[in-house]
Write a structure and sequence with these properties.
The protein is an alpha/beta fold. It is built from 10 helices and 14 strands. Strand 9, helix 6 and strand 10 form a beta-alpha-beta unit. Helix 2 packs parallel to helix 3. The strands form 4 sheets. The chain has an 8-stranded parallel β-barrel with strand order 1-2-5-6-9-10-11-12, surrounded by 7 helices. Strands 3-4 form a two-stranded antiparallel ribbon. Bound molecules: zinc ion (ZN). The site of zinc ion has 7 residues, from loops.
């Protein structure tokens, strides 16, 4: 076990998402400038990856490539943090074309939701042909897919893509277990370990838990050699009755615990090495 304990924790900060609202937490970043600033602050606090959604001025989820470009350019001008773009559905608003909008902007990583599910009162549709399309598109562009699994069966869906020769697209596996969504797998230790045990040898995996589940699942992941996602997309509160002030505040807490556990957090170069992401070409 000592080998896995020593592996540094890759912390992902999920900056704003598409479901959380300013009503739930007034500190939620909305504009491109707010999202980019929050991402840079989260990176300074220890996040090696920032997971990016964009929003219209009124806070509704957006798929406009110009907004992504503004955010990515602003982050890249100030930070080497790895950028993970969403290909989610914008809470059911986006067409397939819109979901792929950010991939042309060369994010290092992009989410690939590995199956369909009930998501609260909606159906989150990710049919097999979309999964193949996302995997092919990311493969052609050299983008590492983040395989978001909201339930155990989604791990199997990802492995089925591997049987078809569509994964892994960059030679490495990167899974995100997204737990505690109403309609998905509960945020429990047994679920995390069952999902982890299905992974291919050498796969890296991370866990997020929505709401109050976040800290317990982060602790389990860190104790078992996994990685952690936190951020205002998943957690409006820092503790009961107290809004999280920022993404950076949530990242700092995870970084402190990772240090106490003797793992520490992964720098961007360490995260690149663990995930097999080549350094970004330097613009002239
Ligand atoms: Zn997201």
């Amino acid at each position: 076990m000592s080998g896995t304990r020593e592996k540094p924790v890759i912390v992902t900060a999920a900056i704003t998402g598409s479901v959380a609202s300013s009503t739930e937490n007034p500190n939620l970043p909305i504009t491109p400038a707010e999202i980019a600033d929050a991402a840079v602050e989260a990176a300074e606090a220890g996040a090696a990856i920032v997971h990016i959604h964009v929003r219209e001025a009124d806070g509704t989820p957006s798929a406009h490539a110009e907004l992504y470009e503004e955010v990515f350019d602003s982050i890249r001008s100030r930070s080497g943090v790895l950028i993970c773009a969403t290909t989610g559905s914008g809470a059911g608003r986006f067409s397939e074309e819109e979901r792929l909008a950010a991939l042309s902007l060369a994010p290092d990583i992009a989410s690939l939701d590995a199956g369909s599910m009930n998501f609260g009162e909606r159906v989150f549709q990710n049919p097999p042909e979309l999964l193949r399309r996302l995997a092919r598109d990311m493969g052609a562009r050299g983008i590492l897919p983040e395989l978001e699994c909201f339930d155990v069966g989604m791990v199997s869906n990802a492995l089925r893509l591997a049987e078809e020769g569509l994964l892994p697209v960059t030679g490495r596996w990167w899974f995100q277990f997204c737990l505690g969504v109403r309609g998905g797998a509960p945020a429990r230790a047994g679920v995390i370990l069952a999902m982890r045990d299905l992974l291919p040898h050498g796969a890296e995996w991370s866990v997020l838990g929505v709401g109050r589940a976040q800290l317990p699942v982060a602790l389990i992941a860190m104790a078992e050699g996994g990685h952690v996602r936190t951020g205002l997309e998943d957690n409006a509160y820092f503790r009961k009755g107290e809004h999280a002030r920022s993404n950076a505040q949530l990242v700092r807490r995870i970084a402190g615990i990772a240090g106490d556990l003797g793992r520490g957090i992964a720098s961007v170069p360490e995260a690149r090495e663990l995930l097999g992401i080549a350094p970004r070409a330097v613009a002239a």
